[in-house]
From TrEMBL:
Belongs to the peptidase C48 family. One of its GO terms (molecular function) is cysteine-type peptidase activity. Pfam families: Peptidase_C48. Keywords: Hydrolase, Protease. GO terms for biological process: proteolysis. The keyword Protease applies. Residues 42-220 form the Ubiquitin-like protease family profile domain. This is Ubiquitin-like protease family profile domain-containing protein.
Length: 267
């Protein structure tokens, strides 16, 4: 895998927005945190941005949601990129419930929006990021190989059963139920097998699972998962890469530096 290039500007962005301790007051109770970055239909506050990407931090829902939005923009509208699409963690959480209590109406609008706005019928792979107790896993609807795959960076051997196994299985069954009424791929997902890959990169820390979830999405190809670097320096550089990518994103409609200055003045 080509290493992510981190230049001096990227490092400066990371140091300023993820490593500096600012004394910023939270808004009055009941008021939302001001937006710091806005890409597409997703916002993130400075607090969540910093807390989700600083050293040794767990990637939070807000960072993952914003990254997925940028991921979708990059992969669905580029002729040189594989056709990939990722549902938001919020949608995945609705699909993780026990099948006996799953209501298709809770996700119908999300599926319709993805079909109409993002044309997911052209996707080769569909990703779902699941989080529980700060641990992330990825479920993949692999339309190329007609499989459902699960990547969990905490699995050590074939005998280990992750506490995310049940939510992942629920999501697969519930998504099959959801698309029976609207299936953009014209595949019978009930015929897709559940295949658990083995030998893929695993985390050696207790806090890098969110980074691994993103790396699985980025590096999964029709031929399998491309290898990627998992040493401490590479993973820290990947945090810097994510922070700089979101901050500098061409579709970020906010002046993030100005938004931080407003927060500092209020405090």
């Amino acid at each position: 895998m080509k290493k992510k290039k981190i230049d001096a500007m990227d490092d400066a962005i990371y140091q300023r927005y993820c490593c500096t301790n600012y004394k910023i007051k939270d808004p009055p109770r009941g008021e939302p945190l001001p937006s710091f970055i806005r890409i597409g239909g997703f916002d993130i506050s400075f607090k969540h941005f910093s807390n989700g990407l600083k050293k040794r931090a767990h990637v939070n829902n807000e960072v993952m949601s914003l990254y997925i939005e940028s991921f979708n923009i990059e992969h669905m509208y580029s002729s040189s990129k594989p056709r990939k699409f990722a549902l938001s963690p919020h949608v995945a959480s609705k699909l993780c419930v026990d099948p006996s209590s799953f209501n298709t109406n809770s996700c119908t609008k999300d599926l319709k929006r993805a079909c109409e706005k993002n044309d997911i019928a052209k996707a080769d792979q569909l990703f779902f990021t699941i989080v529980k107790q700060d641990h992330w896993a990825v479920v993949v609807l692999n339309l190329i190989h007609k499989q459902f795959n699960v990547f969990d960076s905490n699995i050590r051997d074939s005998d280990y059963v992750s506490f995310l196994e049940k939510p992942c299985s629920n999501l697969i069954e519930n998504f099959k139920t959801l698309v029976r009424g609207r299936n953009p791929w014209k595949h019978n997902l009930d015929m897709f097998e559940r295949f658990s890959p083995s030998g893929y990169p695993q985390q050696s820390t207790t806090f890098d699972c969110g980074l691994f979830a993103i790396l699985y999405m980025e590096n999964l190809t029709a031929r399998g998962l491309k290898p990627f670097n998992t040493d401490t320096t590479s993973l820290l550089n990947f945090r810097k890469y994510i922070a700089a990518k979101l901050f500098k994103h061409p579709q970020n409609t906010l002046s993030s530096e100005e938004e931080l200055e407003k927060l500092l003045k209020k405090s």
